[in-house]
Amino acid sequence: MKHAILVMGPAGCGKSTFCSTILTHCQSIGRSVHLVNLDPAAEHFEYKPSIDLRDLITLEDVVEELQYGPNGGLVYCLEYLVNNIEWLEEQIENFEDDYLIIDCPGQIELYTHFPIMKNIVATLTKCGYRTCGAYLLDSQFVQDVGKFFAGVMSAMSAMVQLEIPHINVLSKMDLLGDRAESYELERYFDPDPNLLLEDVNKESSPKMHSLNRALVQLIEEFNMVSFIPLNINDEDSVTLVLSHIDNAIQYGEDVEPKEPKDMEDVEDDDEMYDF
Ligand SMILES: Nc1nc2c(ncn2[C@@H]2O[C@H](COP(=O)(O)OP(=O)(O)OP(=O)(O)O)[C@@H](O)[C@H]2O)c(=O)[nH]1
Ligand SMILES: [Mg+2]
């Protein structure tokens, strides 16, 4: 079985950094992973992507030749990918039994109302991939409840559209310093919808209260508002996030266990010393 993580989230929330953090971590534990870049505007990468959308189309060319602005150009590039999806199919066919980390562009429209990501997921599924969506929100989203609400809505919109296993990650936890451990923050990781409603009502005018209630109810019904905090400087935190993803796509259940081979090696070694 093949596996993929689709790394999504608003502009600048740390998607590319997340991808290279996971890559570094996987390399250090001897796991095979490949980076896939789906951002036609990406400029540089810590790791060279194994598959790169810029080999098919770049934002620079679209802006130059078609006179699109940067946002329209980006949507054009991804629509071009969807219209030439055989390109992606051919590329991902080469990665039997591997794990792809897919770095997406940071334009929120791609997750909320364009069917682009849905098409990409359908292609991955068709090619035999189990895909997990990792939706990143920057830790600044837990600094006030209004922002948190907006962030949750965008995460939920991606989740509802894509219909794949999904986790939410709160990135850049290192920026919060000591506050990262505080009770005030922890209540956002797995928030109680009633507390959320109380908080958001305090900050908005009474006119908004019934809308707030409806939104909280929606969040509650989807039962998805939980976030895994990620501090990229803390190895345990990276391990925890990856284990949530592995769990969501059942990675490891069908991977050949390492022991038998190791045991053979040991046996061979034994033979060498068997006088
Ligand atoms: N302190 C800190 N900074 C981070 C972290 N992750 C990302 N950044 C910084 O945030 C900025 C954006 O990070 P990227 O990883 O490029 O974010 P992105 O989501 O890929 O951005 P786009 O592709 O433009 O949407 C960079 O300046 C990073 O150095 C983090 O965990 N901690
Ligand atoms: Mg990026």
UniProtKB/TrEMBL annotation:
Keywords: GTP-binding, Hydrolase, Nucleotide-binding. Residues 252-275 are annotated as: Disordered. GO terms for molecular function: GTP binding; GTPase activity. It holds the Pfam family ATP_bind_1. SUPFAM superfamilies: P-loop containing nucleoside triphosphate hydrolases. Residues 264-275 have a biased composition (Acidic residues). Belongs to the GPN-loop GTPase family. Small GTPase required for proper nuclear import of RNA polymerase II and III (RNAPII and RNAPIII). May act at an RNAP assembly step prior to nuclear import. Binds to RNA polymerase II (RNAPII). This is GPN-loop GTPase 3. It comes from Physocladia obscura.
